[in-house]
Design a protein that fits this description.
257 residues, 12 helices
Length: 257
Amino acid sequence: MEVSLLQEGGGGTKEDEPQFIGVFAGTMLLYMVILLYAVAVMRATLEEKTGRIVEILVSSVRPGTLMLGKILGVGSVGLTQLAVWVAFGIVMLTLGLPALVAARPEMADPAFIAGALPGPGLAALFIALFLGGYFLYAAVYAAVGAMCSTEEEAQQAQFPVVMLLVVPVIFLMPIMENPNSTTAVVASFVPFFTPILMYARAGTGLIPLWQVLASLSLLYGAVLVVAWVAGRIYRVGILMQGKRPTLPELWRWVREA
């Protein structure tokens, strides 16, 4: 069984097609909002740690619960902001676009805009990938914030995590042009790459439904594993000050926390 979440079509699109432009814009939006709100979790964690606020909080709340609450709180803000953006876009399309077409028809092509908009299936996939990607990266960033003592340390420690989001963006264009290539299929099953690449594949090509469901299962399974590991690092690191831990020390925290 195969599924096309945007429209019926074959394998990939051209750069000047409305479908390509719409999916590319949605993919970059996913990249930005996941990175923006995951980093917000790290900054909130680091602020509480450096301000010694967390020492008061953990006296009444378990560190794991505190981390989960922080992730859920920032995630709720992210979903609310996305809902505002969507509502604003709908208002612009329903009220502003007709007026623009009537006044300057050469500046807006309704058929082009309609082709760039995602269908219901792709919109639902966007939300599922945003939630999975956000929880995955937010857990990692919470651990990064907990194991650092200064903003400078956090900036250095988050570089490998940022690269996990940058790498799929680097390969985005060729994968959108050939979404059913071996590289595209394999890369979209890597949980850290799934939010970016699976949306691009589903939006620009006809792909098997099992691949969408399998990638989502792997993504949310990785969320559970990463959250468990991050929670153990958070539990130890949130109360520690001084030098940033080494990899062997982090491994000891995971085993002994």
